[in-house]
Amino acid sequence: MSSKTQSILSYLGILWLVAYFGGKQKRDSLSTYHLRQGLGLLVVATLVNLMLNIIIMLVPTLSTPLSLISVVFLILMIFGIINAANEVRKPLPLIGKLFEDQFPFLDSSKE
Fold this sequence. Notes:
Distance between the termini: 15 Å
Largest sheet: none
Order of helices and strands: HHHHH
Helix content: 55-70%
Strand content: under 5%
Oligomer: single chain
């Protein structure tokens, strides 16, 4: 699996695992960067969706406006895929800077 393919797959939710395990031999700093960004996006989206589900269970009338927040994560995912396809190391808007130095287990399989 090429570095570019790993980078693109890292933003597609559960396919992050395919990018992580399938591309260990050809991992470089670009794919590691996008794996960090993608995992960060997945973690934040999961936590926010969990919180939103709890709020919606408590106040059902807020379900429609709060469900629109998930569109933000779709947009961030698209930004990440575009950056990965262009082989650019650019953090995701809003949350990308938080994950540039996180997830040290990704460094062990780097170059």
